[in-house]
Amino acid sequence: MTKVEEDDEMILNYKFELAAFNTLKAKVGDTKILTDLTGLVQNRLPMQSRNTSTDPRDILMFEISDGSATVKVTIWADLAHTLNEELDRMPGQDNIIILTSCGITEYHGM
């Protein structure tokens, strides 16, 4: 047996406060408290481009499920490309994702 000395500087520690999907409706539009979510990635669509007030931006849309509910997710710009590439590297596999510091909004009532 080897005793390992603790080294808090070597690996960063993160604390997630994962929200249950059934609590998200109450968080819509709350800009003061951001939300952490985790779920199984499902129904990923191909990358798309959306016009914004400044210029076109690429988006990645998919759903995540916690087994009892499903949430639609949209990732924008460079992060969309990075995530899409990561998911492409694991075809046919179930992908669990943690989304942290999310703003919760409704789009057309969804």
Keywords, separated by commas or semicolons:
mainly beta
Proportion of residues in β-strands:
25-35%
The helix/strand order is EEEEHE
Shape from CA axes? globular
Helix run count: 1
- Helix fraction, binned, reads 10-25%
Q: Low-confidence spans: pLDDT under 50, at least 5 residues?
A: none
* Extended strand count: 5
The biggest sheet, with number of strands, parallel, antiparallel or mixed sense and barrel status, is: 5 strands, antiparallel
Mean of residue pLDDT?
Answer: 87
Cα distance spanning the termini: 54 Å
Structural class by sheet pairing and helices:
mainly beta
Computed Rg: 17 Å
Write up this protein.
With 110 residues, the chain is mainly beta. The protein has 1 helix and 5 strands. Strands 1, 2, 3, 4 and 5 form a 5-stranded antiparallel beta sheet that branches. A hairpin with a 4-residue loop joins strand 2 (48-51) and strand 3 (56-65). It is globular. It starts with 34 loop residues before the first strand and ends in an 8-residue tail after the last strand. InterPro entries: NA-bd_OB-fold.
List the helices and strands and how they pair.
Blueprint: E1 35-42, E2 48-51, E3 56-65, E4 70-76, H1 77-88, E5 96-102
Antiparallel strand pairs: 1-3, 1-5, 2-3, 3-4
InterPro entries: NA-bd_OB-fold
